[in-house]
Specification:
It is built from one helix and eight strands. It has one helix spanning about 15-30; strands spanning about 40, 45-50, 55-60, 70-75, 75-80, 105-110, 120-125, 125-135.
Amino acid sequence: MKLVPYRKTNDLKPMSNMLSMFDEFFNRYFNDDETPGDNYRVMALDIVEHDKEFEIMANLPGFRKENVKISVHDNQLMIEATVDEKKQEQKGTVYRCERYSGNYRRNLLLPENAEPSKISARMEDGVLKVLIPKKEPSPKKDIEIQ
């Protein structure tokens, strides 16, 4: 006779544990990008590679282009965006407040074939689009053995 231990869990418990592990991993991923002591959040990005360029798109609804700064230093692209907090007198009861007012920052390591001196950006309808051209590949050079 074989004894099978009795468990008080339902069949969905292992699945919910797995899903909560994924949630925890992704939440930790985005929280790790925050610098302790700084009040920066991480902005979500789409990065697409085309034949001749890389395209980065970031949703920045409510941001003006004057409040977005893009810089390149040591082969890293940094995108920063700021929304000024405005303290207003509360005239009603707030039930939920999810809109963030503060600073966003994202730092990306540029690939070796990127051309940082030719990066361009534009902002339209709350979407920041950054284009990073690729360097022309250097032609193959045969070396003669002497």
